[in-house]
Amino acid sequence: MAEEYRSAKIDVEQGKRLYKALTATSDELFQVLLDPEMLVLRSALKNQFLNEDHLLALLKRRDLSEDLLKSIYQLEIAKGSHRLQVALVKNPGTPGPVALALLPHLHLFELVDLCLIPGVTPDQKFGAERAILQRLPTTELGNKMTLARRATTTVVGEILKGGEPGLVEICLGSPRLREVAILQFINGATSSAETISIIARHAKWKTRPNLRLAILKNRRTPAIWFTLFLPQLRTPDVKNLLASRRLSPSQKKLVQDELKKRGLG
What we know:
The protein has about 260 residues and is an all-alpha fold. The chain has 19 helices and no strands. It is about 65% helix and about 0% strand. Helix 7 packs antiparallel against helix 8 (about 95-100) and helix 11 (about 140-150) packs parallel to helix 13.
């Protein structure tokens, strides 16, 4: 009997909260949206006073269910509000299909911010990066320069791959750039004598052994870098370099001259 009474009491209390969610004034609704029960929150979505500010406050919560977030996405008010679309995408509980549908509506640097916020899910980050990469071909140079400074490893690596000297310099200063991306760039079709030289003299990267070898194996590398780097290489590396089929005849001669200086020519 006691259990039935408690159950009935809970139902009555829940009923009161559901009714309150439906009938609350605009000011009272903010308090209602703190309720831990998703059923009450779903009821609040039907409140006639519900507006953008209420939903923005609600979307700051990280305990919302996927069903509730999907319901918010389907509201007419959400379809016409850029701020709500951004807030929905940033909520880690938002279902993947919903987030992907919203990404095209986000501005370029809103996508960047999404990639970098703590707690972002892998799917959210991947989707945002993909959206950024799709826009790169039509992105203005100034925005590309900002992206090269602020964006993720993947995006910075893609900008580097473009081979524009000014952007290459900025990418090399990014704390998110990885050595493997530079190696791929040096060995790729878009590297040039100018951009190779930018890498070769960069304070952070010029001493990396793997990068030096990659630079010396590129037939577009200016002779000055052979003059500066060869004396610092181990003899086995110099011999291996001589055996490379990538070098031009003039580059091979510089390598042979180095071996002769070591009495091995």
